[in-house]
What we know:
The protein has strands spanning 10-18, 24-33, 48-56, 68-71, 79-83, 91-94. By secondary structure, the chain is mainly β. It has a single domain, classed as Immunoglobulins (Immunoglobulin-like, Sandwich), CATH 2.60.40.
Amino acid sequence: MTRLLDGATSYLVDLYYKDENNQKVYKLKDEETTTTSLQVSGLEVETTYFFTVRGKNAAQLSPYSEEYAILSELVSPDLMSCVEYTGDSFKARSAGVRSRVLPPTW
């Protein structure tokens, strides 16, 4: 793993997939976070995404980390019950759904 900037106060994350010409199509570009994890929604199912991270402080910006790949997965929720049925609508309760997240630290 590429070493990030010592004393980083935030991180810049790029998240993208590669199109049929192997060109990067960005979902996030320089998304800034002060933690070493990031939750992303709205990913396409069965798509391989890639991410890189850079450390940042008041004076410096680190080089990009190496590229990491993740595969988005669709996980069905477990339906528990229907509530507030009104004849043309209802609310459904379900158990929690597992999700794919970026590694906990970088």
